[in-house]
Each structure stands twice: as C-alpha cells, then as structure tokens.
C-alpha cells in the first residue's frame, strides 16, 4: 500500500493527476514545460489548457535550484521558495494550492507526549523545509528547545520518512495522508496536527521572476488547469475514492475516506494564500533559517496570475 500511495502525498501532484480525467480541449503546445516536483505523478494532466508538460522528480532544494537556473519552468514546493525569495533570489510563488496543512506529527508507539521526544531523532525532508519548520514550532509551543532537545535527520519525502519511522531509524516525523492513518493502525501515535498549532499555506506553484514577464499567459494556463482539478476533487468524491483504490492501490476504504476528508477541504479555491497564513510561513522560515528582517509578502508572492486565472474561468 505504501509504495503505490506515494503519488498522493504531494498536493500539487494530486491536482496534476486529476486533470487527466478531463478530455483535452486544446492541442498541446510544442514546447515542453518542465515541472519540478518531489513525488512522482503523470504529466498528461495539463493538456486541457494546451500545455505540454513533463514532470521531473527531484529533492526540494534541487527543484528550487532548477527554477532559479531556468532549467525547470515551475516548482511545486512552498517553504523552500519562500526561503529563496526571502534571501533575495529571483523566485516568486504564483499560486497557493492549499489553505492549511494536514501534516501530522507521527511518533513511535512508546512516544505518547511531545515531551517524550527529548533526546530522540526526528525525520525531516530538508533543513529549512516545511516539515522542519513545523516540528520546530511544535517543540517550541510545548516548551522544548529544538536545537538541543532533538536531533533532526534529513531523509526526504513523506514516504521515506514514514519508512524510516517504521524501520526504527527515527522516532518521529511530520507525515501526510495516508501515512498518518496507516501508522495509527499499526500502533504509531498521531500526537498533533500542525493545523492545530498554526495555519500555513501548503503546496504552491513557483516560478523564476523572469517568467512572470516573459510567459504570463502560460502561468495563467497552469493555474487554470490546477483550478479545474480542485473543482473536480471537491465535487467528484466517488471518482477520487475510486482513483485512490484502482490507480494508487489504497485498498482500505477507511483509509481512503480519511485521506479524502483530510485533503478536500484544504484545497484553495482562489489560489491566493491569506496574508495571515503568509506571515505565519514567513515567520516559520525565518526561525528555521535563523534569519530576521521585515519581509513583504509582495517580495515572495505575486497573486496577480491567480486572480486573472480565476476571472477567466468565471467568464467561461
């Protein structure tokens, strides 16, 4: 189940996969668009907007570097691009995929309280990434010192973190559905959902700043394609549950239902993260990277493309 469920762990990849169910309305353009993601999925999903995209799977920071060097057209991570923009690098987030996080701190069976993590190993994707920032915030809320009380270990995506937890090489990790549900059935503990601690946007579409000037129409088409899939997910529940079972091999009906309930309500209908959640993620990134300074949301995100995409879809 775990291996075949990996495709649903990245929210952008879920969106990209769903649009494949729409019959193509426009012939795909000749130029290949490279989308850098951290979890494997199909690439036919953007053809409904005439986009000929290929998906390349890579680590978070490699996605950022690829976008900055223009070898990758679009990046599907969030906190890493926030960090890049905060450092003055030419990156902008143009769409927020989810309005909240469904990341859950999953721990080994003998860890029943946050305080039990003292002296333990916590798995993260990368230093400065979302799971790292989230765990730090949770530990601080419970009066612990993230720099002294735990050891962070860079492991990679949610599936790798769960496998490390199951294998006993780490004691805790922030994971996404279905791993929190699968883990709970196997005796692991869901200690806290990050949504209970703080609201932050999760998943995004990011570009190199030059693209906002050179390819504005293409950016809008990308966002419109993702909007279509959000609508599909939220209005075609039975299809999504069937897709989870047939295409991803999630056979447990209870797990499928739990995944859907966790995800469906979090997808953004506007593609624009509220200012409060953006300030939250800025603060988290600053704390995890030990940086400071007054950062404007406009230095990180450009929501004009999401606004235009939404307006164009309403006119159809």
Quick take:
This protein is an alpha/beta fold. 42% of the residues lie in helices and 16% in strands.
Task: Write a structural description.
The structure is a single chain. The chain has 316 residues and is of the alpha/beta class. The chain has two domains: 6-99 and 200-315, 3-Layer(aba) Sandwich (D-Maltodextrin-Binding Protein, domain 2); 104-196, D-Maltodextrin-Binding Protein, domain 2, CATH 3.40.190. It has 13 helices and ten strands. The protein has a five-stranded mixed sheet, sandwiched between helices. A three-stranded parallel sheet has the order 2-1-3, covered by helices on one side. Helix 3 packs across helix 12 (275-289), helix 9 crosses helix 13 (304-315) and helix 10 (237-246) crosses helix 11. The chain is globular, with a radius of gyration of 19 Å. It starts with 10 loop residues before the first helix and ends with a helix. Residues 1-14, 16-28 and 40-47 have low confidence and may be disordered.
């Amino acid at each position: 189940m775990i291996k075949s469920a990996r495709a649903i762990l990245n929210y952008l990849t879920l969106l990209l996969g769903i649009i494949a169910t729409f019959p193509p309305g426009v012939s795909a353009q000749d130029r290949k668009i490279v989308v850098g993601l951290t979890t494997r999925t199909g690439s036919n999903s953007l053809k409904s907007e005439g986009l000929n995209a290929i998906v390349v799977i890579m680590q978070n920071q490699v996605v950022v570097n690829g976008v900055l060097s223009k070898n990758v057209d679009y990046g599907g991570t969030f906190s890493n691009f926030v960090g890049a923009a905060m450092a003055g690098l030419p990156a902008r987030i143009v769409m927020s995929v989810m309005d909240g996080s469904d990341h859950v701190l999953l721990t080994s069976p003998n860890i029943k309280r946050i305080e039990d993590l003292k002296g333990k190993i916590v798995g993260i994707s990368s230093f400065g990434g979302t799971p790292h920032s989230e765990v730090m915030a949770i530990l601080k809320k419970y009066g612990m010192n993230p720099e002294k009380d735990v050891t962070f270990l860079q492991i990679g995506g949610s599936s790798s973190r769960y496998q490390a937890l199951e294998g006993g090489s780490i004691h805790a990790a922030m994971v996404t559905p279905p791993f929190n549900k699968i883990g709970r059935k196997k005796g692991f503990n869901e200690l806290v959902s990050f949504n209970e601690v703080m609201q932050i946007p999760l998943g995004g579409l990011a570009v190199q700043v030059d693209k906002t000037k050179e390819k504005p129409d293409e950016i809008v088409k990308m966002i419109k394609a993702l909007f279509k899939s959000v609508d599909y997910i939220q209005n075609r529940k039975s299809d999504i549950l069937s897709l989870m079972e047939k295409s991803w091999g999630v056979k447990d009906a209870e797990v499928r239902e739990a995944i859907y309930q966790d995800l469906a309500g979090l997808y953004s209908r506007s593609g624009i993260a509220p200012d409060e959640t953006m300030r939250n993620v800025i603060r988290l990134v600053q704390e995890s990277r030990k940086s400071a300074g007054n950062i404007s949301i406009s230095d990180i995100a450009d929501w004009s493309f999401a606004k235009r995409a939404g307006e164009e879809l309403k006119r159809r």
